[in-house]
User: Fold Coenzyme F420 hydrogenase from Vibrio tetraodonis subsp. pristinus.
Amino acid sequence: MKVEEFNSKKIYSDVSGVSSYIDKRIKIELNSYGLYEEIVDTDISGDISPLVRKVSPYLNSKLSVCDVARTLFSRYENIKNDVRIGYYQSLFVGYVKEGEYRVNASSGGMGTWIFKELFEKGLIDGVIHVKENPDKKSSTLFKYGISKTIEEIKSGAKTKYYPVELSEVLDLVKNCKGKYAIVGIPSFIESIRLLALNDTIIKDRIIFTVGLICGHQKSSKFADYMAWQVGIKPGDLKNIDFRHKLDNARADSYAIKMTGIIDGKTKTIIKSKNNLSGQNWGLGYFKPLASDFTDDVFNETADIVVGDAWLPEYQNDSNGNNIVIIRNPIINDIVTEAISEGRLIMNDVDSDTIFKSQAAHFRHTFDELSYRKYKKDNNNLWYPINRVNAENEISFLRGKVQDIRMEISSKSHEYFKMAVDKDDLSFFENKMKILNNKYKIIYYLMAIQGKGLAGIIKIIIGKLKK
Assistant:
């Protein structure tokens, strides 16, 4: 692959860092927008390694997510397949009862718990997961690391809405013998699977994968924006807990806990996400372009997938619950045994229940990806090949939703950088308010279209009475 071709397509990469691991001439750096970027000098000698095309999901046109998943899981006895969620042995909704895994988790505690089980049973020697950056002088708050004790494993609990990459930790794996389990978003896990097909050391050492369900990635500026709203200016944020649980609140009404410098003093502030701007995931603040061109909602190449149980019957439980998709029989045996022992509280569910927990996410990521690709075709722009065909078969207003979402994502990066340069948070918020209002108008029009004017008036009267 020529350097020019790689550079023209890298904006669609989720920048897992696997390309840099393969070809050391590809550097990974956080750019001025707080997103990891693959940097390749245009005057480097020779072409980029042909392996880069093979290990990058957005460049590999020969193996789809389905192909990789089929190779991994179709051979297992009693394996089932759902076109929406992929292969599965078992499907559950619930939480970890033993210990404090649930208390210290974003939701039900299953992610950290399964690592603990694999480690205690001697199936792995370490866990590859996202932790606080040990270099406190660095402005990067989180990075991938390896944990080799239970306490270290627990330190990686909770979701981090923050950019990370794998190149450094993969070098550690290659130089440190052992068996590892890794956690990651769909594109990262698929990259690891593709890498394992081409690198025997990685195949032999990363033997379990734990997948997260990811609405979309965020730049590091998302954390900065949350902190700036409570008085911690960009550059002064020292630590952030994106999913701080609140007692007696709905599962989706968590808080953000931030520690940073305000007026020369270190302060910790806890703020409900409902009182912070930019928390509406549908708006897509600080979303990289690559997140809009993936079709893998349920992390189809992971051995086990954990996500939030965004289901009505679980929403009022402030402690949180996980949906769990299990594909690997070894992990399936571990989980079912723990359920029988009462260490896990899990309900068997069907694929429809799992799908409903992420229905809105699926509609945007998979169903309406066809429209986003159609728009690229109209402008003669390249985009990654995946299972979704470019078509304009959604309604006019749903198309407008997609248009404004992409505009909001793009402009949020630009306007925030300008706001930081001006040292003026209101600049960003005023600019984004105009786009947010356009978004709201489209949804009002869809509501009128769905319920009719009489229905809308009835809703308004009901709200006024309340």
In short: The longest helix spans residues 425-465. Residues 220-275 form one domain.
